[in-house]
DNA sequence: GGATTGGCTATATCGGCGTTACGGCTACAC
DNA sequence: GTGTAGCCGTAACGCCGATATAGCCAATCC
């Protein structure tokens, strides 16, 4: 977090600019060096490698992504925030396609944590939904489903020449995944009330904790709840 | 289809081999040339460009993909075939991750038609479902949804260190998307009977055609059906 | 039958890339 | 003042994609 090196930040921004403007989504170390007026060895001292530079660019992209999300998730309704989060994700992908691919497409030997941190954000938003009793599955599982669908839809959007039927596709996918992850809002679909109640309590413990139980007791309770919501782990 | 140039095929296979074995999912034109015993100008004569070679590798990957699918979709039940198709897609991605990314990840300036042809295959499978009255939306829309979800899930699978919970995630996603695209098999969910009947008739016309109407009449009928199933297009 | 010509090949090369060894510079320690 | 340690730029290495050039071989034509 203490990213106070101005030179490092300048090189990251230059790299991101060149990544966005280059026609083949490629960036040359020489170009970013002479863009900020330094020579190549400083790049290798700061980032160690070209991959290190790209990882830093991806992490910087996460910072912007997180800032964009923090400026938006303010509603009291967590499922409304979840819907807005999906649309914000798609907007981010459409606005910065090259950076998006750098962040969310699998790169070999990548040490960037952008994707994992995005998923942490999503898990947090989903935990708030679970605390409100709106989640049918564990937040981790739901997050992985939602993020995968979001990435797939965004990459499809990037690959196409940006045809006309964009938002319809995205919203269709969003509804499809959400309806398999969220409880139906109109009629409280309690197919397995014990399961959903355990999920809800677990999320509440994650969010606020409790002072009524000792820490050891709370930990044991969490394990019991996990055994209810993850029956396969014995 | 008349791909009878053995040298071209050998170079494509060499490139695919090196792509799969290289740690960074990269391939060098020099390496594929000396792997088949020719020099670089023949590569540029045959493929014009490195991108041309990669496009050819991607298209060859589609050939294997299509062969794998043709050897499998034999059941009389089209929705069962659709489920098997999803699982086959995931298996293909798991078996050849580098080739999969080459085929399904957006590359700038790519002239490969692998992704489009995969979607054509999917549209055909979905048209069979629509002819059986099992589809709720147009085959094109359903295909784009399914393919996007499939790619997103497969890339998530590739990015992760291949943890344990693989098939559960994939099948969850599959069920989520399919249930928003297929009619519920247990109870014939005819929320909009006219719409679904129009879809079904359109698919039947695509599959078999009709001799009861003149060609011009059939064409007009198709346009009417499309106006029913795509009310936004005026 | 021998010269010619056109297609195809390999050699050699160019410019650019990622990466690093090396020498010089500055700033501080004693 | 002198030694020293860290930092920087210059220059170079090896690899890559792409190409100009020259040689080869076979078919063709007089």
Q: Roughly what percent helix of chain A?
A: 55-70%
**Morphology of chain A:** globular
Tally of individual helices of chain A: 11
Give the quaternary arrangement of the chains.
homodimer
Uncertain regions spanning at least 5 consecutive residues of chain A: none
For the largest interface, the chains and their residue counts are:
A-B, 37 and 37 residues
Q: Taking Cα atoms only, what radius of gyration of chain A do you get, to the nearest Å? A: 21 Å
Largest sheet of chain A: none
Distance between the termini of chain A: 39 Å
> What is the total tally of β strands of chain A?
0
**Rounded average pLDDT of chain A:** 87
Structural class of chain A: mainly alpha
- Strand % of chain A is under 5%
N-to-C SSE string of chain A, H for helix and E for strand: HHHHHHHHHHH
InterPro entries (chains A, B): Homeodomain-like_sf, HTH-type_TetR-like_transc_reg, HTH_TetR, MT1864/Rv1816-like_C, Tet_transcr_reg_TetR-rel_C_sf
Protein name (chains A, B): TetR/AcrR family transcriptional regulator
Pfam families (chains A, B): TetR_C_33, TetR_N
Keywords (chains A, B): DNA-binding, Transcription, Transcription regulation
What are its keywords?
234 residues, mainly alpha, 69% helix, HTH_TetR (chains A, B), 0% strand, homodimer, DNA-binding, DNA-binding (chains A, B)
Report on this model:
The structure is a homodimer of 234-residue chains. Chain A has 234 residues and is an all-alpha fold. Chain A is 69% helix and 0% strand. Chain A has eleven helices and no strands. Chain A has helices spanning 6-21, 29-36, 40-47, 50-70, 78-95, 97-104, 114-131, 139-159, 166-179, 193-207, 215-229. The A-B interface holds A 23-25, 97, 101, 104-106, 108-109, 115, 137, 141, 144-145, 147-153, 155-156, 158-159, 165, 168-169, 172-173, 175-177, 179-181 and B 23-25, 97, 101, 104-106, 108-109, 115, 137, 141, 144-145, 147-153, 155-156, 158-159, 165, 168-169, 172-173, 175-177, 179-181. The structure holds a DNA duplex (30 and 30 nucleotides).
